[in-house]
Amino acid sequence: MGCGACRPAKLPVQLFPSKAQSVENYIAVWYDGLNRGEKTKALEKQIQNVVKVVEKFNDRVQCRDFIEKVTLEKIFLIVSDDDDSKNFQANVQHFKQIYKIYIFCLEEQSTDPNSGSYTSIKSLCTSLKEDAKQCDHDMIGYQIKGPTANSNRQKASDMHTQLLREIILSTDDDQMKELYQFCQDEYKNSHRDIEFLKELQKTYRSDTAVQWYTKEGFLYSMVNKALRTRAFEQLYFMRVFIRDLHKQIDKLKMNTAGKAPPLYRGQHMDNKEFDDIRKNEGKLLTVPSFWSTSTNLEQALEFALKPCNEEKQKHVLFKIDVNRNTSFSVANIRNLSAYQHEEEILFTMGSVFRIGQVERMSEGYLLIHLTLTDDIDKGLRTLQQHYKNSIMGTNSCLNFARLAYLLGKWELSKHFYKKCLQIEKDQEHLVVIHSDLALIELQLGHYDDASTYSTSIEPKQVTSIKENKTSASVLNNTGIMLHRRRSFNAAMQSFQNALAAYAAESCNNEELLGTIYHNIAAIHNENGNYKEAHDNIERCLEIRAAILPKLHPTLAVTYNCKAVTYYISGSCDKAIEYAQQAVDIDRNVLAEDHPQTILHTRNLNFFKNKITSSSQ
């Protein structure tokens, strides 16, 4: 229990999305029950020219366990033409992760010509290449805001997606070296991709982003996979390219006038994803990635009606109506695309649509009507704008660090803050970065590391800072660290010094002032000074309620502190009332596994259990 946003929690290092196996939308899993390792090494390298990640197994239990744990990619399963492999295939073919199964026979003479087996590595790789394209086209990760128990959290997730989008688009540098090095490391085993990378390095310019995005190579898959899964590290590396791509789309949109004709998109869709759309007519659908459509109905139908695994997938055609007055960028890229015959219309990332009627067509596909819209929840729009103002600055790396902190991803936030130390030259900014790193280490329970970052800030650095709010903020953060170390008197002195610095600097950052009062209240609670605790938390709430959006999670922190104050002063009913308000906000704007949500929910349940046990 506590008044802070959360107690220290050990969380795993997670620079990529949870359980991600590849930067691409697919991986190859090769089960070779005969264990012909040496014989297949050269073949494996050829497959890696098509599919970057190839996982080989000769133990069926290990292979099955691996398949079950894959959640963010589709699997191209390669098996041998022998009884053991056939039995294994029958055992796993129903898994939703498996996109297609390929029977690959190394001994041509033993293969039944009617079995559908691949008897050459060339034919196998040709099939893998075509299926990889289709998989990239199908793996979008549509986000639907429907009337479900998690609809509020889905709205919040969309808000965080839009914030990430804003951070990427605000990039003001042209640094591509990190992207090139990242791609060099990722694709070092693929001769084809390394050649693509070399050409990219030699010829890329900001006005060629669309051409490179549509060109056959890894960029299309990697960009959209990262956007779909919110892979922060990859998105940071790709920020310049994504910004350039968006700007090109936006420029073409601005040069286009008149009412848009209907647009079409054909694809295969997993049964569950289709059912989610079908059940939510009239609701909103967000596309987190860039989204390709066409004015050519026949071209779109070709994509929709390609053969698929009909036990797992549906043939789907989207028909999209576009109002050109929308704020989302959409443009005809036919003259820039590497595939001009597709008459491609490209939507920028994060576009939002209203789901219309779903029809079953006699030709064997399902027609989904969508309308591009600007409709966004007003409460979350206000909160999003507040976050945008408080998070975003001129340092892209720092922006990523702050957003990761907002999402409760402490290790990820620390990773970006430490990267900032290598980039930032401004002394005042470095002081703030060290101070914020100390707070992150506290959240992770690394007290010695927190102390190291805190003590690296010399007093003269704090007192010499002229930037509005900075020295008061550093002193406040120092107080938090002392509080966590249970040095209550020293913490109180630091918070009092923060108040004095705030007044001396004539700060106008009321959010910081509210935070200082909140922390003073927490110290009074620790010392048993409940009246003083009440007085300070009321000052805090008065300030925060006046300046923060109603759904801001910092208000939830305030309500939680009031709940704790009421509980330890003997008012359990009032504690439950305010704890419930805290949890209600958390459920609207934070993920279920966010440390703040976990803490506040735990406190509410604790108070309720106390009431129940005392009445028995």
From TrEMBL:
One GO molecular-function entry: nucleotidyltransferase activity
Pfam families named among the record's database cross-references:
ART, TPR_10
Which keywords does this chain's UniProt record carry?
A: Glycosyltransferase, NAD, NADP, Nucleotidyltransferase, Repeat, TPR repeat, Transferase
Q: Does the keyword NADP apply?
A: yes
State the superkingdom.
Eukaryota
Gene3D superfamilies on file: Tetratricopeptide repeat domain, Toxin ADP-ribosyltransferase, Chain A, domain 1
- List the catalytic activities from the record: L-arginyl-[protein] + NAD(+) = N(omega)-(ADP-D-ribosyl)-L-arginyl-[protein] + nicotinamide + H(+)
Q: Which family does it belong to?
A: Belongs to the Arg-specific ADP-ribosyltransferase family.
What's the protein name? NAD(P)(+)--arginine ADP-ribosyltransferase
Q: Which organism is it from?
A: Adineta ricciae (Rotifer)
Taxonomic lineage per UniProt?
Answer: Eukaryota, Metazoa, Spiralia, Gnathifera, Rotifera
